[in-house]
């Protein structure tokens, strides 16, 4: 049994003063087979603590249905960290941001159109408390007060950037305390007056998040909390990427310099990120700095961190270790053996299945007078297909989707007429309706729910309706497409692609190794490896390859399936030994 606490400007583990040098590794962004490798590399760099968020939507994907297995086995991740001699900081607040879908909140909250998020709204709090009734008893035996490695828990995340509801924050604090969470509780916010005023809670340690201007940040924290240690809970030593922009990097020298500033001021630190990992499946988030500025995050969460997406140390790793060695006696850098990488070469697609021909095989149709959102249909992620008929004749007018979240491919009598999306809102679709009328079908993709800021409460799919001119169109048939069960697909021989299609082939592997899937020539879609949703690809970049961890492959035959939305110049893919991003 142990205690982690502070007195004055110093943290103590029992009666020993300690400086926390931590790094973020999200268990849910790394396949479980590699948790030990990443934690060993963190420790070899000189860090004494690992930090992780806990995404509510991963652990309670549907209301009352919980998952703590496989990549969601948080208990095993924490136990493993403890076995390796690391402290653990856990951030299980309902909201995590993290560039993760909906900031970790479960989509089903929005099935209640009256739901209020991140405030003292009784229905929201009831859901949080029901989740904590399941989650927190799993963490209780892992607390340092119970002999485990967890030294601290976060009650909310950067709340001062969102609101100032102290009743809500105190409810979260008491929810943890009443369930036996008797370790240090903390908040983390930006080092600004409004953020600290909105996010701090009496009796809870405040920490700050920043990437530079260390003294200024710590001085601001000390204005509000003069008799406590200073800690940067998120030291942004790199950054994340959105689709369609340049890959973000930060020099090793600059990142190491700011770390040196933090430690020289007797600060504790948590690298965000130390190892970023991957937004597998449809779990990437999105940002929106205004209603007209929607930016979805890419599949890779490399973050330009000390360990890259596939867990290899980059120059920044060794620069960080050198700085830490000025403050901590470090022995030789004992890294685990490198994980083998392999280029399996070029692979031709063998079969093809059109979405249109298979709609009823992979989704049950739902009829409605108006288009419904994913949330109202009980769908978390993926795509949704809407179809209706416009009678004719009608003169030329504009088809308006009011509003599309996030990207819609519009087909008229089976022919692609336009792609309408939030990223390029200036695109318009106008047409005449002939005497015999027109069949209209719309495939909408959820590109990721917003994970930060004031526009988080948004719905996916068609959120209001579809108009031809001023007239709303009725009599819709909807097919939810979460792509979680594709066993009903019937494949045929390859043919010219004129609509969204699934492609399939087999990769034969003798020795399963890490590899990188190049989709050069493809446009936009999703890749599945042996049924595992690897994530999205998009030719607008910056990401050009998808990381395939070796444990997703097996000796012998491996099924490779691609859902391509537009078309490819070459129905083949290439497995490379190294990634391509930029």
TrEMBL record:
<protein>
    <submittedName>
        <fullName>Beta-galactosidase</fullName>
    </submittedName>
</protein>
<dbReference type="Pfam" id="PF21317">
    <property type="entry name" value="BetaGal_ABD_1"/>
</dbReference>
<dbReference type="InterPro" id="IPR048913">
    <property type="entry name" value="BetaGal_gal-bd"/>
</dbReference>
<keyword id="KW-0378">Hydrolase</keyword>
<feature type="domain" description="Beta-galactosidase 1-like first all-beta">
    <location>
        <begin position="371"/>
        <end position="482"/>
    </location>
</feature>
<dbReference type="InterPro" id="IPR001944">
    <property type="entry name" value="Glycoside_Hdrlase_35"/>
</dbReference>
<dbReference type="InterPro" id="IPR031330">
    <property type="entry name" value="Gly_Hdrlase_35_cat"/>
</dbReference>
<keyword id="KW-0326">Glycosidase</keyword>
<dbReference type="InterPro" id="IPR048912">
    <property type="entry name" value="BetaGal1-like_ABD1"/>
</dbReference>
<feature type="domain" description="Glycoside hydrolase 35 catalytic">
    <location>
        <begin position="11"/>
        <end position="326"/>
    </location>
</feature>
<feature type="active site" description="Nucleophile">
    <location>
        <position position="234"/>
    </location>
</feature>
<dbReference type="Pfam" id="PF01301">
    <property type="entry name" value="Glyco_hydro_35"/>
</dbReference>
<dbReference type="InterPro" id="IPR017853">
    <property type="entry name" value="GH"/>
</dbReference>
<dbReference type="GO" id="GO:0004565">
    <property type="term" value="F:beta-galactosidase activity"/>
</dbReference>
<dbReference type="InterPro" id="IPR019801">
    <property type="entry name" value="Glyco_hydro_35_CS"/>
</dbReference>
<feature type="active site" description="Proton donor">
    <location>
        <position position="158"/>
    </location>
</feature>
<dbReference type="GO" id="GO:0005975">
    <property type="term" value="P:carbohydrate metabolic process"/>
</dbReference>
<dbReference type="InterPro" id="IPR026283">
    <property type="entry name" value="B-gal_1-like"/>
</dbReference>
<dbReference type="Pfam" id="PF21467">
    <property type="entry name" value="BetaGal_gal-bd"/>
</dbReference>
<comment type="similarity">
    <text>Belongs to the glycosyl hydrolase 35 family.</text>
</comment>
<feature type="domain" description="Beta-galactosidase galactose-binding">
    <location>
        <begin position="500"/>
        <end position="558"/>
    </location>
</feature>
<dbReference type="InterPro" id="IPR008979">
    <property type="entry name" value="Galactose-bd-like_sf"/>
</dbReference>
């Amino acid at each position: 049994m142990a205690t982690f606490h502070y007195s004055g400007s110093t943290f103590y583990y029992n009666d020993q003063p300690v400086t926390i040098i931590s790094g973020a590794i999200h268990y849910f962004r790394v396949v479980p087979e590699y948790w030990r490798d990443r934690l060993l590399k963190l420790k070899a760099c000189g860090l004494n603590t690992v930090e992780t968020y806990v995404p509510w939507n991963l652990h309670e994907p549907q209301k009352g249905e919980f998952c703590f297995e496989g990549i969601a086995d948080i208990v095993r991740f924490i136990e493993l960290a403890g076995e390796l001699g690391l402290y653990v900081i856990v951030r299980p607040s309902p909201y995590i941001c993290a560039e993760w879908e909906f900031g970790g909140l479960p989509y089903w909250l929005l099935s209640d159109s009256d739901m209020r998020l991140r405030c003292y709204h009784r229905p929201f709090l009831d859901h949080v408390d029901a989740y904590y009734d399941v989650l927190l008893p799993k963490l209780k035996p892992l607390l340092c007060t119970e002999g485990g490695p967890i030294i601290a828990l976060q009650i909310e995340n950067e709340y001062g950037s969102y609101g100032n509801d102290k009743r809500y924050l105190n409810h979260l604090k008491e929810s943890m305390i009443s369930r036996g969470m008797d370790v240090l509780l903390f908040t983390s916010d930006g080092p600004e007056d409004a953020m600290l005023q909105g996010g701090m809670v009496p009796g809870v340690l405040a920490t700050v998040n920043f990437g530079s201007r260390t003294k200024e940040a710590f001085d601001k924290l000390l204005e509000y909390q003069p008799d406590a240690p200073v800690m940067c809970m998120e030291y942004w030593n790199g950054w994340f990427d959105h689709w369609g922009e340049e890959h973000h990097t930060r020099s090793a020298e600059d990142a190491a310099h700011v770390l040196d500033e933090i430690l020289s001021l007797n600060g504790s630190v948590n690298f965000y990120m130390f190892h970023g990992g991957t937004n597998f499946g449809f779990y990437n988030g999105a940002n929106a700095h205004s209603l007209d500025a929607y930016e979805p995050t890419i599949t890779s969460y490399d973050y330009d961190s000390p360990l890259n997406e596939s867990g290899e140390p980059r120059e920044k790793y060794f620069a960080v270790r050198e700085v830490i060695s000025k403050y901590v006696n470090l022995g030789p850098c004992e890294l685990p053996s490198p994980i083998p990488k392999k280029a399996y070469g070029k692979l031709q697609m063998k079969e093809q299945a059109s979405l249109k021909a298979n709609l009823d095989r992979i989704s049950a149709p739902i009829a409605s007078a108006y288009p419904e959102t994913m949330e109202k249909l009980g769908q978390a992620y993926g795509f949704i297909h809407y179809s209706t008929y416009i009678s004719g004749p009608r003169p030329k007018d504009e088809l308006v989707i009011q509003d599309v979240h996030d990207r819609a491919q519009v087909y008229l009598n089976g022919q692609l007429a336009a792609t309408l999306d939030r990223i390029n809102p200036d695109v318009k679709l106008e047409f005449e309706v002939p005497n015999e009328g027109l069949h209209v079908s719309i495939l909408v993709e959820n590109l990721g729910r917003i994970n930060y800021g004031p526009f988080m409460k948004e719905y996916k799919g068609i959120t209001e309706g579809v108009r031809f001119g001023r007239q709303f169109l009725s009599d819709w048939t909807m097919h939810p497409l979460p792509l979680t069960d594709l066993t009903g697909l019937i494949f045929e021989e390859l043919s010219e692609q004129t609509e969204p299609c699934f492609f399939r082939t087999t990769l034969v592997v003798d020795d399963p190794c890490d590899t990188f899937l190049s989709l050069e020539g493809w446009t936009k879609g999703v890749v599945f490896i042996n049924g595992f949703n690897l994530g999205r690809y998009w030719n607008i970049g910056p990401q050009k390859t998808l990381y395939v961890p070796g444990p997703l492959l097996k000796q012998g035959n491996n099924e490779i399936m691609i859902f391509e939305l537009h078309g490819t110049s070459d129905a083949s893919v290439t497995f490379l030994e190294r990634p391509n991003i930029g």
